[in-house]
Amino acid sequence: MNEELKEQLKKIEQEYPLVPHTHAGRLFSMVRRMNKEKELNISIDCRSGFAISVKTGKSTNKMTENEWNDFYRSLSNELSEGYPDLFKRIFP
User: Fold this and answer.
1) How crowded is residue 40: how many other Cβ atoms within 10 Å of its Cβ?
2) What pLDDT is recorded for position 20?
3) What does each C-alpha distance from 66 to 11, 54, 70 come to in angstroms?
4) The pTM is what?
């Protein structure tokens, strides 16, 4: 892993920590983190493996690009429908 990537991941961890408290908190935390990882174009194998898909049985850092995108979209939709105020904090 190169130094630039290490610095990006360190910064993400500091600014977008994963918070496993409540369903809303976990979901918000994961969508927020996945959004930032995608935005920064971090390769999937270097992304957080915090969430595991029930459908695929894979953690997010072990998925294919299509699996990751489908999972991210699913989590984003769940956040939008269940917790619209939290969703708006990520996607104003």
Assistant:
1) 13
2) 65
3) 26, 15, 6
4) 0.79
